[in-house]
Structure formats: structure tokens, C-alpha cells
What we know:
CATH architecture: Roll
Number of strands: 6
Radius of gyration: 15 Å
CATH class: Mainly Beta
Order of helices and strands: HHHEEEHEEHHE
Strand order of the largest sheet: 1-2-3-6-5-4
Distance between the termini: 33 Å
Protein name: Nitroreductase family deazaflavin-dependent oxidoreductase
Shape: globular
Largest sheet: 6 strands, antiparallel, barrel
Number of helices: 6
Amino acid sequence: MDNPWSTVVTRLGRKKWFSTAFKGVAPHVDRFLGRVSGGRVFILTGTGRHTLLLTTTGRKSGQQRTVPLLYAEREGAYIVVGSNWGQERHPAWALNLLATPEASVSVRGKAKKIKARVLEGDERQLVWGVVTKLWPGYDNYAERSGRDINVFALEPVA
């Protein structure tokens, strides 16, 4: 991740104004880029960070909802963080997964069914170190949010 774009994004990602400015724009741009590129191009493409498209079932509406998320891979699972850009409330997609853990992801253009699991205890602590290396802003988000940020393992199912 040592390229100029990655360095700039890493520094900006820790700033509150960046989160505030981009939380309303970046997901829409990423969703669009991901769909038109077949899941190969996102805002952070070229930074060494990877984005997937997670599709959950809305816990209130029952409608399919798709959101782009940074992820890390660990033991065959995709690890995603419910940071919600450091806001006080959990993101809707995380609440949807808590209500219905069966969902799907599109990773590099390949769709897969998954089952979500919240990581806890030592496993969460171990993975937190991995995800904060991927996106150092997660530490800032956790501090700003004043809540426990859920970390999910999205485990592929047959």
C-alpha cells in the first residue's frame, strides 16, 4: 500500500471532515463503479485495499440492499467493519445482517452466498489489528462513535 494515492487516502481517512464529507458520496460512487466495472473498480482501487459489494435483506422493508465495503480476507472469510464512518449508530447493513445473517457478496465480480457472524473476544481483537492496518481510520471511527463497532466474518456457504 505504499503508493502516493494510498498514502493520501490513509491520512485523509483519519480526519473527521473526510468522513463527514464522503459518507454521503463514496458509497454511491463505489456502488456505481462496482456495477459498471463488474466488481473490478472502486474508489480505492490501486491503493492495495479491496472493496466488495454486500447485499443484505432490509430488516424492515424486506428489500435487497447493496453496499460497498472495504474488506480483509481471513481463513476463507471476508472481514468487514460496521464503522458507519464513526457515527454513533450502527450502519443499516450491519443491523440487517444481525436480523438476517444470510446474504450475498460480489467479490472481484464473482457472486457468493455468505452467512455473517459477529466476531467477539480474542478473535475480534486479533482481527481488529488486521483491519486497522488495512484502514487506520477505523481506530478514529471507534473513538468518535462511542460504541462497540461490530466486526463481521462473512463466511461463504455452499
